[in-house]
Amino acid sequence: MQPLIGITGEQKPASTLIDVLDVLRTVDIDIFYGDYARAVQRAGGIPVWIPADAGPEILERLDGFLLSGGDDIDPAEFGQEPDPNLGNTNSHRDAHERRLLDAALEIDLPVLGVCRGVQLMNVHLGGTLHQHLPAHVEPSDDPAATHHRIAFDPGSVAHAVYGDDIEVNSLHHQGIDQFGNGIIPVGRTVGGPDDGLVEAVEIDGKTALGVQWHPELLGGIDPAVVWLVEQASA
Predict the structure, then answer these.
(1) What is the pLDDT of residues 173-203, one digit of tens each?
(2) DSSP H/E element including 117
(3) Which residue range is the domain that position 88 belongs to?
(4) Most CB atoms closer than 10 Å: which of 103, 126, 194, 211?
(5) Does 216 participate in catalysis according to the annotation?
(6) 81 is catalytic
(7) Which one of 10, 77, 115, 136 is the catalytic residue?
(8) Crossing angle for the helix pair 91-106 and 116-124, nearest 10 degrees?
(9) Where are the beta strands (DSSP E) in 91-147?
């Protein structure tokens, strides 16, 4: 049976949309990027959108959990003042996803964190972020364009999934700085901007993998998403 993979999104007022009826402009909407769902489907799973106000009990009906990308994480979540280059934040989403992640780790639900998702994993466990990495911010107009290489530590899940190294895209400007409790760095940038920046992590004793790039945008069947679906099927 195909596993159910829950995917997070974000809630915003309908007024943020360009084309919306005036009568609906004050209504909240949940926004999900379809590429995550398509990546899960290509890997053999069934995507399930998680509403922005869903409680942790929703995870009891799911087989895997994908923390998606999106707005910056509020620096207050890791005890810092905002950098002048901080982008949009969403404190409701920060709190909601932290509750979901806490519940997922408690029951050892397989977790894949993507971009903001890996950052949230680190912050939730007590780590901090680089608030602004200008060399990583949209270096190309093509979201699938590769930007730098990531090398993986032998013996890690990421190495088993991807091999020695891969070329990845880059659509972020925050990144992992100090590691949270149980966070294991397993992949780092090589030969590009901010050489040695950690862009892949695992969580000690948990079925959890986080990546800083956007595998769902690279096309084809991504090994990390396959890993999530396989773990969710176990």
Answers:
(1) 889 999 999 999 999 999 766 678 899 999 9
(2) helix 116-124
(3) 4-233
(4) 211
(5) yes
(6) no
(7) 115
(8) 70
(9) 111-114, 129-130
